[in-house]
Amino acid sequence: MNVATKRDLPRDVPAIDLVHLARQSDGYETLEAELLGMFDAQAAKLTTRLWQPEVGAQAKADIAHRLKGSALAVGAWQVAEAATATETHFAKIAAGDVSDDEPLVELQDAVDEARAAIARLSA
User: What is the model's pTM?
Assistant: First the structure.
């Protein structure tokens, strides 16, 4: 699945697409909360791992890919888009390409925004 770049996403894209989430959970609010909780925990764990310097480039690409899949499941489009850029970045490094573009800050910002939205929804 192709994910839009940040420039392609409308400015008003919510951190979590609640309509998508409702479709994914067939409208069951308990399942929605469970999915959001799982995404929240996984996003925190995976982004922490991405920042660790001892983690290799291919492992970081794989971590970003996992995060992208989780984000797509709950409708965290900005996280998915930033994770796609991160995955591509580290896959290129693993293949020997040098890149100046460091997408981790953008991914971290998107994850932080999504986690803040989840916290507001959980309150």
Answer: 0.84
